[in-house]
Amino acid sequence: MATDSMTVRSKVGDFIRRNPTIVVGATLLALITLAALFAPFIARDPIAFEPINRLRGPSADFWLGTDSLGRDVYARMIYGARISLLVGLLVALISIISGAVIGLLAGYFSKVDAVVMRLMDGIMAIPSILLAIALVALLGSSVKVVIIAIAIPEIPRVTRLVRAVVLSVRDLPFVEAARSNGTRVTKLLRRHILPSTVAPLIVQATYICASAILTEAGLSFLGAGTPPEFPTWGNMIASSRLYLQIAPWTIFAPGICLALVVLAVNLLGDGLRDRLDPRISRRM
Amino acid sequence: MLSYILRRLLGVIPVMVVVGVFVFSLLHLAPGDPAAIIAGDNATEASIARIRASLGLDRPLLEQFGKWAWATVQGDLGVSMFSNVPVTELVQQRMGPTFSLAFTTMAVAVIIAVTLGVLAAWKAGSLLDRAVMGLAVTGFSVPVFVVGYIMVYFIALQWRWLPVQGYTPMSEGLWPWLRHLILPSFALGLAYVALIARITRASMLEVLAEDYIRTASAKGVATMPMLLRHALKNAAVPIITVIGIGVALLISGVVITESVFNIPGIGRLVVDAISRRDYPIIQGVMIIFAAIYVLINLVIDISYSFIDPRIRYS
Amino acid sequence: MTSSRRSILKAGAAAAALTGIGAPHVARAQQRPPRQVRMVPHGDLNVLDPIWTTQNMAAYHGAMMYDTLFGIDANFNPQPQMVGKTDISADRKTYTFELRPGLKWHDGTDVTARDCVASIRRWQARDGAGQHLFERVADTPVVDAKTFRIVLKEPYGLLIDALAKTSTPLCVMMKAEIAATDPNTQITKHIGSGPFKFIESEYRPGSRVVYERNPDYVPRSEPASGIAGGKRVLLDKVIWDIIPDAQTAASALMAGEVDFFEVPPIDILPTLIASPGIKTEVLSKLGNVGQVRLNHLHPPFNNLAARKAAQLAINQEDIQRAAIGNSSYYRTCGSHFTCGSAMGVEDGSEALMLKAPMAERQAKARELLKQSGYDGKPIVLLHATNIHVMNQTMLVVAQNLRQVGFNVQLASTDWGAVVTRRSNQNPPDQGGWNVFYTWSGGNATSSPISLFAHAAIGKKAWFGWPENADIEKMRTEWAYAANLEARKGVASRINKTMMDYVHDVKTGQWVQPAVYRGDRIRGLLAVPEVVPWWNVERYA
Fold first, then answer.
1. Using an 8 Å Cβ cutoff, are B68 and B287 in contact?
2. Minimal C-alpha gap between B17 and chain A (Å)
3. A178-227 residue pLDDT tens
4. Which residues 165-224 of A have a C-beta within 8 angstroms of B?
5. Which end of chain B, C or N, has fewer beta carbons within 10 A?
């Protein structure tokens, strides 16, 4: 018994020592996600307000002060985690899954390739933020629209990535063998080609997630972000930018959270990439 | 080589068509009425309708698209619905500031990032590596406008070293031009350092793992000069690739920076146009950006073959 | 590093002075500062035709480069400007105007009566007060090169007021061939007769507008007051720097890169005033009046009880606090016609229960809402997020309405989308709306006929489409009233009716202070709805 727990502990300790970035990143993310999940238990309503309370500094009643409407900054920061994390997660998921499907098809079927890649080039040629602003201006400001507006410009890059992997793997002997065995195309794609794409896709997903959270802030700055009633760190920062000198807590609370999460996700991505790339992990 | 270039140039056409159709439909199919905005708050429904008619906005969509597409192909991007100034003239006025900002930002980002990337690759796996890459990522983690405001508050307002906002063209002096661009370039450039440093580090590591480097190292040749001479040259391809990607991303970053530092560039032109639903400007600028993007990619692809002789195009 | 650089410079300067190299530099330092001012206006000048659009920026532009026949002074009384002699016939139906001498267009030609008549006709096609006037105009004959007449079908007391107003569109004078342009298309040439010249070659839409002093302008002899009196220009150049980001504009003012910031957000006013050299002043004393427009065409607000519930629920004090912040700059108001103006009578405002505690008002509102038979269907609030006051106001209004039982759905978009959607008369779930918010200038709002929003003509009215025959009858009565006292009486009755009918819901008033480098410029004129630059001098 003693030896088992010691082995587990030493294995964990080993893992932490070998992959500090992954551990730090994952821990930070886990903590913030927990806070977001338990928001109703640790904070009051982030939307209700009394204008008479506006722009008050941190106090016993409002731990991180109030914003320009009198809303509780601490509560909005905690609830803001929900939408900010959701935006990051969903954008990453949507772009990765769409990009993977399109990339797989384009890489494997050359007829699909020609058409699809032109389309992807077209989307890449339009500056992503202008596309996002236009979409939000046109379809109205809601979390759904913002997620789609941020996800669409990410799809072509993922497609390219997957397509490149598929192209390099498609004519390898083991795939040839499976094909000549009469394996159906979908099974071929899923069982033999897809696994090679998983590692780079996971790493890419983390970068997309981090970038999406930041882009949401940028869109809020330009007036094309999520509706200001519901807090996200991005729209909290953007709507408080006038108050940098008057009420700095309104910017720093969400700003630090945003920076921490983006940092955490990036560290996770860097760590995973180093781990999954054999050339680098060998040097370590 | 020549046939490759020709083929690529031809391939540009379908891409531009996709962009044109996409942008036009996006604008015209969705709610937004420039006529109402032009008319102003005190106007009647009748006068709004008359303005709409005078701008040709009540014609069927296909007819509007056809007219616009035909004119665009001939280089006529139309005039702003509001100021009546030709779109090409507006873009010309604002090219200078945007390109200046993009150029200085890229310079700042590349210099800092390549340095950091080489450093991290040299000591890969060590604490220095982690610290350097962590630093790079920090620059990317804070929204550009927050970095911008903080920089302006300290450097421009408190210490008065640099101006708060604005832009002077190079024709009015090199130093005035530069001093207005220093803060915006750094605020924006830091966001790209992480991306470029990451790729630099990765491709340097690839090269360092090559046999000939390991042989030289075993022979006792010092690592740093070797890195700089051989590895950097061979790592140029992916670095240039990411610079190309960076330029495309840069246009997005420039939009925010131009707003914060009041640089009269194309980014702000388009953002203002979108909020007013000034269709000719939005459509015209998107087409121009698409063309620039496609051109830059072509140039980069061609430059590959000059840098890396192993890459050949059949 | 900085100090050693400075000491080297100092040493170098001393050396240069000794050898006389620095002499021209010293002479330059003793010269007067450039006579120019950089202003950051509230918006962008993207339309150059002050008649074609009712955007305020175009009105500012109009006031700079064009001139008007009459202009209101600081007490809102119309005074002659381009007109030298006015003659009103005994039956008050014929007005004869003779232009004063010395008026020239920027291209050197003389201003003629023909130009004026053409300009008035183009203006009235696009202006509410002008249209009201011209329904009673029989003819506008030109008598000679300097004289013209306006012949009415019946007496109309507000003729000169209409020509003198500063609310957009101003009745500016243009050359006849330019004024001949269809009122529904923009003019393409810009030639005025005003105290400033518009420098078209330096105009950068969205970025910069440049005006230069018109050396041939002959100002009147009276002192400047409002846009009346002598428009003496003491500057050589006025530059409008378009800086949309308020934080950047504020920093630019503090650093001295601009001299005047028209609409600083009131929350950062303390920071600005604390900065050396910066002064603040309210130039438009009547300020702005906020209004929540309810959609009278569709449920629930086609029902009087539901409208009354909304009127009671909406809390002016909270809205102003959230949107403006500093109580020295805002006030609540029980009038539909700008408190503080001549017509700002608060009779009939008992319906608002302004003095009652909020809990009592909300209880009454809930009762009224139940009476109306409201079914709980969501109501659509058009929420413009990119304009600070609108953003804050609608968030408070949404909460106010929710607190009394309305099921509120916020449609958050930019202002452009609101402007588009508000003109849609369909039901809210088919592209229409229930509630939207905007504000209008205090000056325009103080007149029952000048502001189109006051009309209650149903589907042809302004957005919201209120319909009330009594209000319309009284509005015409107001226009024909014999004098100020009579007009006040009519206004009082209109106000009561509007309150009982719930024409729309006003959200209070505020004044917007401007901030400027008091250590460099002085002489700013307080004028509503335009920002004139004559009379201002640069002294440091």
1. no
2. 8
3. 778 777 777 777 777 788 788 888 888 998 999 999 999 989 988 888 99
4. 210, 214, 217-218, 221-223
5. C
Contact between chains at C416 and B41 (C-beta distance less than 8 A):
no
Residue B306: per-residue pLDDT: 67
Q: What is the DSSP letter of A189?
A: I
Domain annotation covers residue A45: no
Report yes or no: A121 and A159 within 8 Å, Cβ to Cβ: no
Q: Cα-atom radius of gyration of chain C, to the nearest Å?
A: 26
Half-sphere exposure of B34 (CA within 13 A, CB side): 26
Nearest to A223 among C271, C321, C386 (CB): C386
pTM of the model: 0.86
Say if the Cβ atoms of C420 and B31 lie within 8 Å: yes
Distances (CA, A) of A244 to A77, A216, B146, B188, C20: 17, 20, 9, 19, 49
CB B209 within 8 A of CB A283: yes
Q: A165: domain range?
A: 22-32+72-277
Return the pLDDT at B314: 38
What share of chain C in percent tops pLDDT 90?
74
Alpha-carbon dihedral C29, C33, C38, C39, rounded to 10 degrees: 130
pLDDT at C13: 46
Rg (CA), chain B: 24
| C249, C240 contact by CB (below 8 A) | no
Q: Is B40 on the interface with C (CB under 8 A)?
A: yes
Tokens (6 digits) for C365: 């509102």
Q: How many domains does chain A have?
A: 1
Question: For residue C127, which amino acid is it?
Answer: D
> Strands C408-413 and C379-384, how do they pair?
parallel
Dist. CA C302–CA A239, nearest whole Å: 35
Check if C190 contacts B (Cβ < 8 Å).
Answer: no
Task: Find out whether C393 and C290 touch, Cβ atoms under 8 Å.
Answer: yes
pLDDT tens-place string over residues B207-265: 777 766 677 677 776 666 766 676 666 667 666 776 677 776 787 788 889 989 999 99
Closest CA to C235 of C253, C217, C261: C217
**8 A C-beta contact, residue B137 and residue B191:** no
What is the average pLDDT across C411-438?
90
**A115 touching C (Cβ < 8 Å):** no
Angle at the Cα of B55 (from B50 to B61), degrees rounded to 5?
Answer: 110
Does the pLDDT value for residue B59 go beyond 90? no
Residues in chain C with CB shorter than 8 Å from the CB of A140 are 411-413, 417
- CATH number where A205 lies: 1.10.3720.10
The pairs formed by B112-116 with CB atoms below 8 angstroms and a separation of 24 or more are B112/B189, B112/B190, B112/B193, B112/B197, B113/B192, B113/B193, B113/B194, B113/B195, B113/B196, B113/B197, B113/B200, B114/B196, B114/B197, B114/B200, B114/B232, B114/B239, B116/B193, B116/B197, B116/B200, B116/B201
Residues 160-199 of B with CB under 8 A from A: 194, 198
Is A52 domain-assigned? no
Is B248 in contact with A124 (Cβ distance < 8 A)?
yes
Contacts of B305 (CB under 8 A, 6+ apart): B1, B311, B312, B313
Q: How confident is the model at residue A24 (pLDDT cuts 50, 70, 90)?
A: confident
Is residue A119 in a domain?
yes
Q: Percentage of chain A surpassing pLDDT 70?
A: 95
A210 belongs to a structural domain = yes
**Using CB atoms, which chains have 3+ pairs under 8 A with C?**
A, B
Residues 231-250 of C with CB under 8 A from A: 246-247
Give the relative orientation of helices B279-307 and B61-73 as an angle to the nearest 10 degrees: 40
What is this model's ipTM?
A: 0.84
Helices B236-260, B279-307: crossing angle, 10 deg rounding: 160
C22 has a pLDDT exceeding 50: no
